[in-house]
Design brief:
This protein has 4 helices and 9 strands, in the order αββαββββαβββα. By secondary structure, the chain is α+β, with helices and mostly antiparallel strands. The protein folds into 2 domains: 33 residues, no CATH class; 146 residues, Alpha-Beta Complex (Nucleoside Triphosphate Pyrophosphohydrolase). The two termini are 28 Å apart.
């Protein structure tokens, strides 16, 4: 595995003359810009067309493990819609064209829970598949995990797609294998970066 990652890193180093690595808030966001930054395209896609996209293509997403450093706990929200309907899940959603992973994390936290966060690191890349979606088809979401610290709980509210939330100790194992992977990687990062 180390050799594969090293080869990927070397390929990216050879591109340094034509790209630049963008740092978001002083933290590396793995966001390479060629020529000039793209404008973020946040235009709404018509439901019928988006359903075709979900049915035929993977949709790149970001999931955010939001941590309160004071209480050493992370946020889970109860989903009312597919995928992951009737489960406590992390905040997250699709990446807009031209948007970095950290920018997506900030936007989704604001949209879904009204909170401001400080993204600090990537927690890995995952391939999630669900047999159901709100588009009446299965869905495949290559997903980038992001660790973000909450700035203030005072503004926390839930959008129409979520009905409740809970804070879970960062020390407590999660029964969901995916969320447990995010929790473990976040805990390791926090332990090593006190």
């Amino acid at each position: 595995m180390k050799y594969i990652l090293l080869a990927f890193y070397c390929v990216n180093l050879s591109l340094v003359g034509t790209s630049r690595l963008v740092l978001t808030g002083g933290k590396q966001d793995s966001y390479f810009v060629y020529d000039a930054p793209l404008p973020i395209d946040s235009k709404k896609i018509e439901n019928e067309f988006y359903a075709q996209i979900v049915n035929r293509l993977p949709v790149l997403c970001v999931d955010i493990l939001v941590v309160d450093k004071e209480t050493h706990s992370y946020l889970l929200i109860y989903r009312k819609n597919e995928p992951a309907k009737n489960l406590f899940w992390v905040l997250g959603g699709r990446v807009y064209k031209g948007e970095s992973f950290f920018d997506t994390a900030k936007r989704k936290c604001k949209e879904e829970a009204g909170i401001d966060v400080i993204p600090v690191t990537l927690l890995g890349i995952y391939s999630l598949t669900f047999t159901k979606s709100e588009w009446n088809c299965s869905t495949h979401t290559p997903t980038v995990g992001v660790l973000a610290f909450i700035e203030s709980k005072n503004t926390l509210f839930l959008d129409q797609d979520h009905s409740e939330y809970k804070w879970v100790s960062c020390e407590s194992e999660n029964e969901d294998e995916y969320i447990e992977q995010l929790r473990k990687k976040a805990s390791l990062y926090m332990k090593n970066n006190k």
